[in-house]
């Protein structure tokens, strides 16, 4: 019987200072992949991926963090497949990726190869950085001493009842970046607009239990980034692609896509669109999935499932491999 699980891949929100250093005992297995990645990017990013003492400064640049997270997730999958005989992507009913993670899903499903994947997300990150730099440069040229800074805030709610009106207002104001769960949203945009939104939402009563400013300077999944989508699409179209071997649940629609053309179109449009993560989780649950393997650095995706009907299984360090083997043995 085929395992009834979905494989989920993380986005940039999971960046940590160490990526591959916990896996050094498998280095002989994944060394050829590092060489392939370095060659594709014409840069030895493997030095940062394997850094023992962390690479947090390097990872602060989204053009570095994006290929680093995709590469790390891919390599963990490679280790499990070739060292432990567990093909997480091949046996999944669906693949899901949170924001950047959807590009990792495209690679694991066979739409793009690894070299193409890291080049595409490196370009995606560079285009995003260009938007922020251009906005700062324009403000300086106009004599405006206040740079048009951008912010993202994760909002936590005590219940879905409190979340719903805030979500509606965030959609209306074009600030909703991630619809993550029944108790968590992420908003993004110009810092002034984001701060004003929080102040207004909590003016009458404390509807938002906690608002955490994320350590990013790019307004992910905000309409500000729509301007980079044509260039991103043109760049992606220079790479060869194949049809996905496993359906990918789209961030854009919360529904599965079965063909490469739709999958690629959706990841381009999700650049400025809300990540429909809660809707995606609801969809796979409706299809009979009650377990989700969250593969990659960090445990953010597992955390988002805590109030859902799906059991999250985090696979982010070698320590978790044993539990994953037990999970597969029980299926």
From TrEMBL:
Residue span, Malonyl-CoA:ACP transacylase (MAT) domain? 8-320
Q: Which GO terms describe its biological process?
A: fatty acid biosynthetic process
**Keywords for the protein's UniProt record, in alphabetical order:** Acyltransferase, Transferase
Q: Name one GO cellular component term.
A: mitochondrion
Which of the seven top EC classes does this enzyme belong to?
A: transferase
The GO terms describing molecular function are:
[acyl-carrier-protein] S-malonyltransferase activity
* Ranges in a coiled coil: none
What chemistry does it catalyse, as a reaction equation? holo-[ACP] + malonyl-CoA = malonyl-[ACP] + CoA
Q: Which InterPro entries match?
A: Ac_transferase_dom_sf (IPR001227), Acyl_transferase_dom (IPR014043), Acyl_Trfase/lysoPLipase (IPR016035), Mal-CoA-ACP_Trans/PKS_FabD (IPR050858), Malonyl_transacylase_ACP-bd (IPR016036)
Q: What is its EC number?
A: 2.3.1.39
Q: Could you tell me the superkingdom of the organism this chain comes from? A: Eukaryota
Q: What name does UniProt use for this protein?
A: [acyl-carrier-protein] S-malonyltransferase
Can you name the source organism? Answer: Suhomyces tanzawaensis NRRL Y-17324
């Amino acid at each position: 019987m085929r395992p009834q699980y979905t494989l989920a891949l993380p986005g940039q929100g999971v960046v940590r200072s160490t990526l591959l250093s916990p896996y050094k005992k498998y280095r002989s297995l994944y060394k050829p992949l590092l060489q392939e990645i370095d060659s594709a990017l014409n840069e030895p990013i493997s030095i940062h991926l394997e850094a023992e003492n962390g690479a947090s400064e390097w990872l602060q640049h989204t053009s570095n963090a994006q290929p680093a997270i995709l590469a790390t997730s891919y390599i963990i999958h490679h280790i499990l497949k070739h060292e432990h005989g567990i093909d997480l992507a091949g046996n999944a009913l669906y693949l899901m990726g949170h924001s950047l993670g959807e590009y990792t899903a495209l690679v694991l499903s066979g739409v793009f190869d690894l070299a193409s994947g890291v080049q595409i997300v490196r370009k995606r990150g560079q285009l995003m950085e260009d938007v922020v730099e251009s906005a700062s440069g324009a403000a300086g040229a106009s004599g405006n001493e206040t740079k048009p800074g951008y912010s993202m805030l994760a909002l936590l709610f005590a219940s879905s009842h409190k979340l719903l009106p805030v979500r509606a207002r965030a959609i209306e104001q074009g600030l909703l970046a991630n619809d993550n769960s029944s108790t968590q949203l992420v908003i993004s945009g110009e810092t002034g607009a984001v701060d004003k939104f929080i102040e207004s939402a909590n003016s009458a009563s404390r509807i938002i239990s906690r608002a955490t400013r994320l350590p990013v300077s790019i307004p992910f999944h905000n309409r500000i980034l729509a301007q980079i989508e044509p260039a991103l699409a043109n760049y992606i179209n220079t790479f060869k692609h194949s049809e996905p071997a496993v359906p990918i649940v789209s961030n854009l629609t919360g529904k599965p896509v079965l063909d490469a053309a739709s999958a690629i179109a959706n990841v381009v449009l999700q650049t400025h669109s809300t990540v429909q993560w809660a809707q995606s989780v609801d969809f796979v649950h409706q299809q009979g999935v009650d377990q989700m393997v969250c593969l990659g650095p960090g445990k953010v995706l597992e955390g988002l499932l805590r109030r859902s009907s799906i059991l999250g299984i985090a696979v982010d360090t070698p320590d978790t491999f044993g539990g994953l083997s037990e999970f597969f043995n029980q299926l």
